[in-house]
């Protein structure tokens, strides 16, 4: 029993220890051959069998011994594991680069100011394609569109960043639209949360902004990544990176939350309560409660009469 426990412990240690040069069959093969003392699992030399196989090779005989054959998988795993890992990382990076959607943009007269959209006519005008082609491979009209609402605190918090973004890309159309005023656009473009930033090319949505943090830096990287347009910086000043000014906190997109009564929300709650009451009246629990009340009422009447 002790011999079995010792052998089991040796198997577990040799298979789990990553410091051994090889694990598994080769380790036990050296034990069976009687040259365990000459075997160096941590590297730094060769064993007797390796010296013999390297010095004596008959005609028609392979350089690899039977021991090399049965331990090939262990050697392959231990020797090229890091190479396989690096190759897989390179493949993932190449695939991510291939999936990056990048288009060519025709310079537009944005004037470095944010365009606040207030009607469907303006939406059509801003998203109108350049020419008749809508292919991504051809240069076209690029628009960065923000879907927001005045009652959303997150929309208000990102307002200075988005105002500054328009100033850094004067050759692109940077626009914002109140999603609560245009429900049809939310359905058409798949807007499920606010604020949402989308990049349009030739009137068609290309990609959404998915970063967890909305700052001027992340917005600039997003636009440059998909359009190839670099931000316009003021070379006369000492600041050569995207930056804020006091005007970015003034507008045109407000950084203050507007309090507004949503009457449709009250209507929705009333509808939910009415539906709940109706289905509750059809349940067995409701019938049991009514029968219990009637029974107590009859017992109280009988008690007063007596």
H/E order of the elements?
A: HHHHHEHEHHEHEEHHH
- The rounded distance between the terminal residues' Cα atoms is 87 Å
What Rg is obtained from the alpha carbons, in whole angstroms? 36 Å
Characterize the main sheet. Answer: 5 strands, mixed
Q: What's the helix count?
A: 12
The backbone outline, from C-alpha atoms, is flat
State the strand order across the main sheet. 1-3-2-4-5
What descriptive keywords fit this protein?
306 residues; alpha/beta; 12 helices
Question: How would you describe this structure to a colleague?
Answer:
The chain is an alpha/beta fold. 48% of the residues lie in helices and 9% in strands. The N and C termini lie far apart (87 Å).
Give a short synopsis of this structure.
The chain is α/β, with parallel strands linked by helices.
Layout of helices and strands:
Layout (H helix, E strand, L loop, with lengths): L1 H15 L8 H9 L14 H8 L10 H5 L1 H28 L15 E3 L2 H8 L14 E7 L4 H5 L1 H10 L4 E6 L4 H7 L6 E6 L2 E5 L7 H12 L35 H19 L2 H22 L1
Parallel strand pairs: 1-3, 2-3
Antiparallel strand pairs: 2-4, 4-5
């Amino acid at each position: 029993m002790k011999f079995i426990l010792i052998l089991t412990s040796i198997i577990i240690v040799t298979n789990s220890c990553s410091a051994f040069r090889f694990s598994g069959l080769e380790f036990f093969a050296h034990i069976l051959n009687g040259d365990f003392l000459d075997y160096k699992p941590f590297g730094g030399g060769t064993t007797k069998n390796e010296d013999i196989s390297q010095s004596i090779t008959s005609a028609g005989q392979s350089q690899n011994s039977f021991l090399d054959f049965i331990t090939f998988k262990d050697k392959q795993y231990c020797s090229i594991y890091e190479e396989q890992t690096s190759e897989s990382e390179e493949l993932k990076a190449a695939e991510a680069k291939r999936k990056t959607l990048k288009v060519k943009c025709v310079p537009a007269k944005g004037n470095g100011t944010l365009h606040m959209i207030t009607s469907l006519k303006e939406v059509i005008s801003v998203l109108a394609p350049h020419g008749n082609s809508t292919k991504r491979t051809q240069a076209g009209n690029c628009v960065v569109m923000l879907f927001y609402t005045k009652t959303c605190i997150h929309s208000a918090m990102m307002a200075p960043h988005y105002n500054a973004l328009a100033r850094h890309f004067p050759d692109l159309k940077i626009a914002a639209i109140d999603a609560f005023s245009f429900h049809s656009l939310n359905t058409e473009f798949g807007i499920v949360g606010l604020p949402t930033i989308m990049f349009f090319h030739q009137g068609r949505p290309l990609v959404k902004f998915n970063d967890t943090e909305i700052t001027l830096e992340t917005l600039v990287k997003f636009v440059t990544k998909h359009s190839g347009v670099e931000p316009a910086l003021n070379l006369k000043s000492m600041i050569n990176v995207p930056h804020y000014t006091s005007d970015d906190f003034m507008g045109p997109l407000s950084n203050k939350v507007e309090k507004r009564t949503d009457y449709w929300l009250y209507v929705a709650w009333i509808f939910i309560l009415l539906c709940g009451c109706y289905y509750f009246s059809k349940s067995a629990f409701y019938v049991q409660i009514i029968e219990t009340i009637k029974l107590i009422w009859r017992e109280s009447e009988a008690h007063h009469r007596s």
